[in-house]
Every structure is written in structure tokens, then in C-alpha cells.
């Protein structure tokens, strides 16, 4: 793979043989295998990186860029609101924290990188369901456990919540996963207009109540828009 570069993206087989120092027959066999698996593409006597390799590399590259570019936005949102700001990505029926800017309050609900939570409970999950069609296929009503009396456990309720999240640009939830925890979340889009992640605030309900949502919701939505801009999102018409 070191034979391919931005400066020389399409070497010939002979160039690959010379650069690797491998026996001709060995190198030819490896190249043919990689073409067959989609890791290389062939056009005439030249080869280039194939879509299979691009698919492997893209998630890792996006993940690194996503956290790096969005972290300053998280810190600014934390400073603006005083509450813990998190960035989530989806993995099947779950959401995972990939970046955190923690509140400086003494009374906190801990959020740590690597924490995994279900989609159906909490505000961030409603944003995934509102903007990521694949999220629905990962859910099953039979596996949607009720963590508290406020946890939604039916698709009908989730669809209404997802519609509300899409309409207002953010979503707030209180006591769905833990009775004393609330969250407000909004979508982060990438340069292609796809949902790249979800930005959210998490807080104890003794400090933040539903009465605070009209103030916090727009702040989270603006922060998510700033994060989207950092990922080169141009808006619905861009």
C-alpha cells in the first residue's frame, strides 16, 4: 500500500514490483487478489486504491476528524451553559460518547468517553432516529427496556418524538434513562449532509428542569450547527 500516494496514485504493476522488492510472481498474485477483493482497482496497466480500502479507512479518518473538529464546540457549549457537553456516534441500537467537555459544577452526572447508552432512552437517541434512517432497523420493541416510568418503549411514541426532534431542530428528555438525569441534543451533519453524530448536554434534573429548555435548546442547536460547519456542512441546499 505504500506504493500508492497522492503524488503517484496509479502505479503500474512493474512499478509496484520495483518499489516493494517482492518477486514478480508473488507481487502479481497479491495485486490480483487485492483487485478481486476490491482493495485495488485496475484500469489498463495501472492500479489505484479501490473502494473496498476506502470503506475501511473512512470510518477511522472520520472519527478522528469528528472529535478533533467538534471538541472546541463542546468546550464552548459547556462554558456557555455550565453543563456537560457530549458528542455521540451510533453503533446499532446504541449511542456511544466519543468526546466530553465536563461541567465544573460540584453536583454532576458523570459522562465519560466510551459510555454506551440505548437509542430509545434520552434526547440524543431521538436525534439519531430523526436523521438516520438506518437507526430504526437496529431497534426492536421487544428489546426496548423501560429504565424508568418515562422511558418510551413503543415505536409509536419514538416516531412522535423523532418527528418533534426534526421539526424543532433539537430534543429534550427528562428522566428517561435515569430519573434524575436530563438531556438536550441536536444533530451534527458532515460535508455530504449525512448525520455525523449528535451533540448534547447532560445534567442533573435538580439543576435543570423543562422550564430551562426554551433557553438551552436553541443554544445546543446553534452549537451543533457550528460543529456541522466545522465538518464543511453547507446546509440543506448546499
Automatic annotation (TrEMBL):
GO biological process terms held by the UniProt record: negative regulation of DNA-templated transcription
Domain IclR-ED: 52-233
Alphabetized UniProt keyword annotations: DNA-binding, Transcription, Transcription regulation
SUPFAM superfamilies in UniProt: GAF domain-like, Winged helix' DNA-binding domain
Pfam families hit by this protein: HTH_IclR, IclR_C
Superkingdom, taxonomy of origin: Bacteria
Domain HTH iclR-type: 1-51
GO molecular function, one term: DNA-binding transcription factor activity
UniProt-recorded name of the protein: IclR family transcriptional regulator
Organism: Paenarthrobacter ureafaciens
Amino acid at each position: 500500500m505504500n506504493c500508492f500516494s497522492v503524488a503517484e496514485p496509479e502505479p503500474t504493476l512493474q512499478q509496484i514490483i520495483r518499489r516493494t522488492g517482492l518477486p514478480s510472481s508473488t507481487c502479481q498474485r497479491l495485486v490480483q487478489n487485492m483487485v478481486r477483493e476490491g482493495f485495488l482497482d485496475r484500469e489498463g496497466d495501472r492500479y489505484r486504491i479501490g473502494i473496498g480500502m476506502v470503506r475501511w479507512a473512512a470510518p477511522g479518518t472520520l472519527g478522528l476528524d469528528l472529535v478533533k473538529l467538534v471538541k472546541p464546540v463542546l468546550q464552548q457549549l459547556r462554558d456557555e451553559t455550565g453543563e456537560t457537553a457530549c458528542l455521540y456516534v451510533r453503533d446499532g441500537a446504541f449511542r456511544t460518547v466519543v468526546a466530553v467537555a465536563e461541567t465544573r459544577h460540584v453536583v454532576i452526572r458523570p459522562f465519560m468517553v466510551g459510555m454506551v447508552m440505548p437509542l430509545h432512552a434520552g434526547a440524543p437517541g431521538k436525534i439519531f432516529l430523526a436523521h438516520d434512517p438506518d437507526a430504526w432497523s437496529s431497534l426492536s420493541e421487544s428489546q426496548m427496556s423501560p429504565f424508568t416510568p418515562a422511558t418510551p418503549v413503543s415505536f409509536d411514541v419514538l416516531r412522535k418524538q423523532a418527528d418533534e426532534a426534526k421539526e424543532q431542530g433539537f430534543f429534550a428528555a427528562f428522566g428517561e434513562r435515569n430519573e434524575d438525569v436530563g438531556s438536550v441534543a441536536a444533530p451534527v451533519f458532515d460535508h455530504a449532509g449525512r448525520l455525523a453524530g449528535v451533540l448534547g448536554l447532560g445534567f442533573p434534573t435538580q439543576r435543570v428542569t423543562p422550564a430551562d429548555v426554551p433557553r438551552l435548546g436553541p443554544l445546543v442547536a446553534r452549537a451543533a450547527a457550528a460543529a456541522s460547519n466545522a465538518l464543511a456542512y453547507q446546509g440543506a441546499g448546499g
